[in-house]
Amino acid sequence: MPETWWRGAAIYQVYLRSFADGNGDGVGDLAGLRTRLPYLADLGVNAVWLNPWYPSPMADGGYDVADYRDIEPVFGTLTEAERFIEEAHALGIRVIIDVVPNHSSTASAWFREALAAGPGSPARERFWFRDEPGDWKSIFGGPAWTQLPDGQWYLHLFDPGQPDFNWTNPEVHQEFHDVLRFWFDRGVDGIRIDSAAVLVKDFDGGDPDGYTDLDEVHEIYRGWRRLADEYDERILVGEVWFPDQERFARYLRPDELHTAFNFDFLACPWEPAALRRSIEQTLDTHIPLGAPPTWVLSNHDVARVVTRYGRAETSWDHGNRRDGVPSDLELGHRRARAAALLAMALPGSVYVYQGEELGLPEVDDIPDELREDPMWTRSGHTVPGRDGCRVPLPWSGEEPPFGFGAGEPWLPQPEDWRKLTVEAQTADLGSTLNLYRAALRLRRDRLGDGTLTWLESRPDVLAFTRESGLTCVVNLGADPVRLPPHESVLLASGTLDGEELPSDTAAWLA
Ligand code: NOJ
Question: Which residues form the Glycosyl hydrolase family 13 catalytic domain (predicted)?
Answer without folding.
Answer: 13-390
